[in-house]
What we know:
Largest sheet: none
Structural class: mainly alpha
Amino acid sequence: MGGTVPRVTTGIVARVTIDSDPIPVTLRWAVRLLRAEAVAVGLVAAWLLWADLTATTTDLTSALLVTAFAIGAAAALWALGGALTRRRAGARAPAIVLQLMLLPIGWFMLQGGMAWLGVPLMVLGLCVTALLVSAPTTRALGFG
C-alpha cells in the first residue's frame, strides 16, 4: 500500500502573514522626536545629578525629587516612543499629554525672558501632537 494512497500535504505549520504595512512617515517622525526629547531630558537629568552631588548648600530632598522627575520623564518619553513604534494605540494619549505639557513650560519661559527656548519648546509640543493625531498615524494605530 505504500504508493497507492495519495498523500495530503496540509502541513503542520500554519501560514504566517507578515504585516507589510510600513510605519507611516508621520508616526516615524513622532517617534524620532519623542526619542530626541528623551535624550535631551536625560542630559538635563545627568546635569541635575551632577549639580546635586557638587552643590555646597542645597535642599537635598527637593533637589533629588527634581532629578528623579527628570529621570522619570526621560524614561517615559523613551518608553512611549518604543510603544508607538510597536503600534500600541494606548501610548498615543500619554504622549500627547506630555507634549501638551510643553505649552505651559514654554509660556513661562517666554514670560521669564527666555523666548529663545520657550518658543521652540511650544512649537515642538504642537508639532509632535499634530504628528500623533494626523490621519496616517491614526490609521496605523488602529483608530481609523
